[in-house]
Amino acid sequence: NNTHRLTLTMSPDERFLEKQAEDEEQKLQRKIQNLSDADHKDIYEKGLQLLAVQSTTQDASCLPALKVSDIEPIIPYTPVQQGTAGGVPVQYCEQPTNGMVYFRAMCNLNSLPEDLKIYVPLFCSVIT
Q: The pTM is what?
């Protein structure tokens, strides 16, 4: 029975971008006016340094490169073994992961009893 209500109507401002640009220009002018001569000179010199650095060609030899000949023309076959774990069908394969194990699973929870469904988030957290 609460009769309090708030109705909010938003309408676009057609000059929004113009106002934003004007505000930014005013802020910039205020900052420029507050700069000392030494600050002006420092900013100018840093700008010249930046321009010099950006104008030089970069040495791309340090970047990693891959040639087509580096890629095996035949995709290596990964044997997938099939089995069961606790009566559930599983597929697994060995990978060169230095002992790391990657696990993916899909579970149909339709047959899970209701009293155990509250533990599903805990199970997901533990398994990952």
A: 0.36
